[in-house]
Amino acid sequence: MKKPITILLIVIAVLAIAAGAYWFGSRSAENKQSVSQTNANLNSNANTNINLAKPNVAYEPFSGDLSNYSFDIVKEWIKVAPEEIQKSITEEQRHGYDIIYYSTNPDGVVYSISEKRIAENWTMSQVVTDDSAASQKSTPGIVVTGQKINEADAFVELSIKNETSDYVLYYHYLMLPVINGQYRWAMMEIFLSKEKVAPYQEVITHLQDSLKIGTGTSVNGKLDLSMFQWSQMNEGPYRDRVTYATSPNLTTWMPSRKILAEHASVPGAVIKNDVIYVYFVDVSIDGKVEQLGMVSSSDNGQTWTDRKILTISGLGNRATADPDPVLLEDGRIRLYYFDINEARISKPESGIESTNKIYSAISSDGINFTQEEEVRFERQGIFDPDVNLFGDTWYLYGGDIESNKVVVATSTDGLTFEEKGIAYANGAVPDVFQANDLFYLFTAGIDIATSLDPMSFVSSGQSFHDSNYQITADPSVVQLNDGTYLMLYKIKN
Question: What SUPFAM superfamilies does the database record attribute to this sequence (predicted)?
Answer without folding.
Answer: Arabinanase/levansucrase/invertase
